[in-house]
Every structure is written in C-alpha cells, then in structure tokens.
C-alpha cells in the first residue's frame, strides 16, 4: 500500500490522478501544508468501517476456541430471590 500526499491545488487540477493513486493506497490532501483530507478507494473504506459484517457474525465469535478463560468456582450457594 502506497501513501500519496498532494496539495489541495494539485488535487483540484488532477482529480483523476488522485483517484488512480487512491487505488494504490490512501491519498493525503494537504491545505497550507497540513493534512486536511484523506481519499480512499471504496474497498479500503469498506474494510475500515466493517461493511458487510453482520452483528450476528460478530457475536458468534468464530475464533472463540482460541480464547482461554480461567473462571473461578463460586463457593456461594444459590438462594431463592426475595421478590417482596
């Protein structure tokens, strides 16, 4: 992935070139020498925001088999709830 930096003037004069550069990686557009905007290709944008992932898929935790947990055994006895 290649990061390209261009001034806002360069961007205005060559938007097509900026779009081509965004296919290779992020394009940082500066304003008075300071980074002001980032142009990304749609695939990279979707990857960053997690587009296409469903909450059910995230909750399923497909890698949960790799998680180790040490859950201490409780010594308390269960009691009926007091609902009065």
Automatic annotation (TrEMBL):
<comment type="similarity">
    <text>Belongs to the phD/YefM antitoxin family.</text>
</comment>
<comment type="function">
    <text>Antitoxin component of a type II toxin-antitoxin (TA) system.</text>
</comment>
<feature type="region of interest" description="Disordered">
    <location>
        <begin position="1"/>
        <end position="28"/>
    </location>
</feature>
<protein>
    <recommendedName>
        <fullName>Antitoxin</fullName>
    </recommendedName>
</protein>
<dbReference type="Pfam" id="PF02604">
    <property type="entry name" value="PhdYeFM_antitox"/>
</dbReference>
<feature type="compositionally biased region" description="Polar residues">
    <location>
        <begin position="1"/>
        <end position="15"/>
    </location>
</feature>
<dbReference type="InterPro" id="IPR036165">
    <property type="entry name" value="YefM-like_sf"/>
</dbReference>
<dbReference type="InterPro" id="IPR006442">
    <property type="entry name" value="Antitoxin_Phd/YefM"/>
</dbReference>
């Amino acid at each position: 992935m290649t990061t390209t930096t261009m001034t806002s003037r360069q961007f205005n004069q060559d938007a097509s070139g900026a779009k081509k550069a965004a296919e290779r990686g992020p394009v940082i557009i500066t304003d008075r020498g300071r980074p002001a905007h980032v142009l990304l290709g749609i695939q990279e944008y979707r990857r960053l925001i997690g587009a296409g992932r469903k909450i059910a898929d995230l909750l399923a935790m497909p890698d949960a088999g790799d998680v180790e947990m040490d859950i201490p055994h409780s010594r308390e006895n269960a009691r009926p709830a007091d609902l009065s």
